[in-house]
Amino acid sequence: MRKILALILTATLILSLAGCQSGDDPAAGGSTPNEAGDSQSQGSDSPEENGGGAPEENGDDAPEETVSYSPLDILTTIWSSYPEDQKFAAAGGETMDGPGLMTGDYGTKESLDSILALPQDSYELVSETACLMHMLNANTFTCGVFKLSSSEDASALASSLNDSIKNRQWMCGFPDKMMIATLGDCVISAFGSAEIMDTFKAELSSNYPDAVISYEENLI
């Protein structure tokens, strides 16, 4: 009798253990709490599901577009703002009463070199030129505004003009001062007497605050 009861208890225990193991088997459709939690956590990190995505590029990092200017407009604006008692007999190119474009015979490689000190090997960097100069003596005041074919050449042209002006063989006296400035897609060079140069620089800065002085030097 005792043997029969022992066999019954043993069989019951075996069946009980088998039932527990089948309930914990993942293949039977169950999942552990950790697995369920990991799945939920991974889903919440998805940028698409949370309305996120790759961060937009900062517009402030985009390169600024170079402002384009007309050389003749620059000189006309500056000349118009000169005080009347400081104006002088002026010419530019074929214009005999103020700034003018350097075209025709005045716009050749040789003319721009001799009149405005533009090096001939820099001629191709320029697409348009305007000039303002003292009609009686170019060394008293001469200014050229050069519009660049490519704004990336501004530094190279400014440097070439600086070297050319300082190394010129001057006739009819030396100019007192020289200056090279950049403004948008233009390079501005000027040389002349100290008084006129100071006025020109003041009017350039007043009318065009974005102009940057690259070179400025006394020549005598």
List keywords for this structure.
220 residues; alpha+beta; 7-stranded antiparallel sheet; 6 helices
Question: Can you put this structure into words, describing what you see?
Answer:
This protein has 220 residues and is an alpha+beta fold. The protein folds into two domains: 2-59, no CATH class; 71-218, no CATH class. It has six helices and seven strands; from the N terminus they run αααββαββαββαβ. It has helices at 2-23, 33-44, 71-81, 109-116, 154-166, 194-207, and strands at 90-91, 100-101, 126-134, 141-148, 177-183, 186-192, 212-218. Strands 1, 2, 3, 4, 5, 6 and 7 form a seven-stranded antiparallel β-sheet that branches. β5 and β6 (186-192) form a beta hairpin. α3 crosses α6.
Strand/helix succession: HHHEEHEEHEEHE
Number of domains: 2
Give the class from helix and strand content and strand pairing.
alpha+beta
Cα radius of gyration in angstroms: 41 Å
Portion of residues in helices?
Answer: 25-40%
Quaternary status of these chains?
single chain
SS elements, strand count: 7
Measured distance between first and last alpha carbons: 133 Å
Question: Uncertain regions: pLDDT < 50 for 5+ in a row?
Answer: 1-44, 46-57
Mean pLDDT: 81
- Strand residue percentage: 15-25%
Largest sheet: 7 strands, antiparallel
| H/I helix tally | 6
Q: Based on CA inertia axes, which overall geometry fits?
A: globular
